[in-house]
Design goal:
Radius of gyration of chain B: 16 Å
Shape of chain B: globular
Structural class of chain A: alpha+beta
Order of helices and strands of chain A: HEHEEH
Organism (chain B): Thermalbibacter longus
Largest sheet of chain B: 4 strands, mixed
Number of domains of chain B: 1
CATH topology of the domain at 13-59 in chain A: Glutaredoxin
Number of helices of chain A: 3
Strand content of chain A: 15-25%
Number of strands of chain B: 5
CATH architecture of the domain at 13-59 in chain A: 3-Layer(aba) Sandwich
Oligomer: heterodimer
Strand content of chain B: 15-25%
Pfam families (chain B): Thioredoxin_3
InterPro entries (chain B): Thioredoxin-like_fold, Thioredoxin-like_sf
Strand order of the largest sheet of chain A: 2-3
Protein name (chain B): Thioredoxin family protein
Number of helices of chain B: 5
Largest sheet of chain A: 2 strands, antiparallel
CATH topology of chain B: Glutaredoxin
Domain Thioredoxin-like fold (chain B): 39-113
Structural class of chain B: alpha+beta
């Protein structure tokens, strides 16, 4: 749904049992596993707000905002 | 032999008739059924995915299916970031890219149906705050959700 709402987002649902090399590369032992930009990952479903915050922590807040000026998007709501 | 049961087809036909707004394209990178098998390029779930998508597309004239032979359109696939097949790319009123890699079976089938409707309408059930945050993202971001069929 996030990719439907933002032109910045590419969202892939990957059926990993068909692609063992992907499972290996991303060390997938439990599903669902979410990987954001190869940098942030977590296992298990998250509430919407926490998921969006995680995406924001990787892709940044408003472009015009100075870094650190708005810390609401820290994304560490686990 | 159809993959979807008659009951499923009835249900989906009604759902599509009620909820699809604008046309949606399902672009499917796959292996064509007639293709000779090439060692190392066998696609275990392409046949099933092709059939499933053809059945889906037959249930609504708002769903268009574009079947692409992965090996013949490698450059286009690479440009889209498609490296595995079967791969489904949804095109409609979505702002970002929505893709399914591997056969969308089990729970993922329900996700695909939901996404077809959302992509057709250009709306989602996300909270207003979530939509606002997503609308302000500064950089492109790639979200991968790894699942298994259940």
């Amino acid at each position: 749904m996030m990719a439907i709402e933002s032109d910045k987002v590419t969202a892939d649902v990957v059926e990993v049992s068909e692609f063992p090399h992907i499972a290996q590369r991303y060390r997938i032992y439990a599903v669902p596993k979410i990987v954001i930009d190869e940098t942030l990952e977590f296992e298990g479903a998250r509430p919407e707000a926490a998921f969006v915050a995680a995406v924001e922590s990787v892709a940044g807040g408003p472009a015009e905002t100075e870094e650190g000026a708005s810390s609401s998007g820290d994304g560490r709501r686990t | 032999m159809a993959i979807l049961s008659d009951a499923d087809r009835d249900y989906l036909s009604r759902l599509f008739a009620e909820r699809l707004a604008d046309p949606v394209k399902i672009r499917l990178y796959t292996q064509k059924l007639t293709q000779l098998s090439i060692p190392g390029y066998d696609c275990a779930t392409c046949r099933e995915t092709n059939e499933l998508m053809e059945e889906l597309a037959s249930l609504s004239d708002k769903i268009e299916l574009e079947l692409l032979d992965f090996l013949q359109v490698r450059q286009q696939a690479a440009q889209e970031g498609i490296t595995e097949i079967p791969a489904i790319v949804l095109e409609g009123k979505n702002k970002g890219k929505v893709r399914f890699i591997g056969v969308p079976a089990g729970y993922e089938f329900a996700t695909l149906i939901e996404d077809l409707v959302d992509v057709s309408r250009g709306t989602t059930g996300l909270q207003p705050l979530s939509r606002e945050i997503l609308g302000k993202l500064a950089r492109p971001v790639h979200i991968q959700v790894f699942v298994t069929p259940t």
